Amino acid sequence: MSRNNIIDLEQQYVLGTYARAPFVLDRGQGCWVFDTDGNAYLDCVAGIAVNALGHADPGLAAVLAEQAGTLWHVSNLYHTAPQARLARKLCESSFADRVFFCNSGAEANEGAFKFARKWAHDHFGPDKHAIVAFSGAFHGRTFGALAATPREKYQAAFRPLLPGVRIAPFNDLVGTAAVMGDDVCAVIVEPVQGEGGVYPATPEFLAGLRELCDRHHALLIFDEVQCGLGRTGTLWAHQGYGVTPDLLTAAKPLAGGLPMGAVLMTEAVAEVMHPGDHGSTFAASPLVAAVAEAVLDRINQPEFLADVAAKGAELKERLEELNSPLITAVRGRGLMLGADLAVPASDVVNAGYRHGLLLINAGPNTLRLVPPLVITRAEMALLIGRLGAIFQSL
């Protein structure tokens, strides 16, 4: 099928909730993707921070093929080895004692809200149910997650949303304390905000949230759907802060491009959940869990994580050295960087297509760089060169 035929089919039959790029991607290799016309693009989107190990990774492909020849899906009515092994490795590599598996980041956040409310209900009664989230947050598009994602354009047409969610100012402990109370069951925060503009939380803010939660007997939830699993140069983004949550949500890179989410939690939270309290038909199928185990094994290596941290620092420095008047600020951690622009970020994204780059925004005037964690220094140099040409052309 030709590019135009494929685009016409999609526009005729797929619900129009995305404004897609004007080409059709056909294959990928490493940090590169290729369209049906043969054009190559250096991928700095990575499937929205998903393809941590790039495209068509041989190791992941081998694990996928091997598992596909044995068992794909049986539901959570039965024990399977890949899920059990993955759960153990996630717990051993984190603060957690237990894991609940699901299929996406929004599902993980919905699950965390349910677990927090069940914990509060069992220990303190039904009146302790409020959830605190923050300005600039993005936690998903489902009703509970959307209520904690304070953007009018996302929420307006879908109200009423989940009640009981309060929004506090991000990185502002005084403002957060003002909305806290003993009726709060949980506080949810991204250690590094992604969609909100790539804003890292300050160490003082996360430490203060831990203290506020302890004071009001509330649970602290870290949403690491985008910033977790190596993206910031540590396995979990909060490990760079020295603050421990009660629950953590993960998803995007967890299964290397296959759908998987997870809620990590302490035993104190897990013990209030019983058979029938929550569930998922597809979660942690043997096929997806086997690939996720391989992804975790690859990322959770000291030398791999150190390389991500070093490359992220180098890329941030190179961005700053572009010294373009169109770049007004650069921030982020590891290979999760944001550049504030004096022009609409969409202008740079669209120009990127002409220069062989896949780019993404994080708000109207912030360019977000979330390439595969395996990007090489030569590819980073190519990225900077092409970005420089784009900024000059604009």
Task: Provide a descriptive summary of the structure in words.
The structure is a single chain. The protein has 394 residues and is α/β, with parallel strands linked by helices. It has 2 domains: 3-57 and 302-393, Aspartate Aminotransferase, domain 1; 71-299, Type I PLP-dependent aspartate aminotransferase-like (Major domain) (Aspartate Aminotransferase, domain 2, 3-Layer(aba) Sandwich). Helix content is 39%, strand content 18%. The protein is built from 14 helices and 17 strands. It has helices at 3-13, 46-49, 58-68, 81-92, 105-124, 143-147, 152-155, 173-179, 203-215, 267-270, 286-299, 302-321, 345-354, 377-393; strands at 25-29, 32-35, 40-43, 98-102, 130-134, 165-168, 184-189, 192-193, 199-200, 219-223, 247-250, 261-265, 327-333, 336-341, 357-358, 360-361, 366-369. It has a 7-stranded mixed sheet, with helices on both faces. α4 (81-92) packs parallel to α11 (286-299). The longest helix has 20 residues, at 105-124. The radius of gyration is 21 Å and the shape is globular. The mean pLDDT is 97.
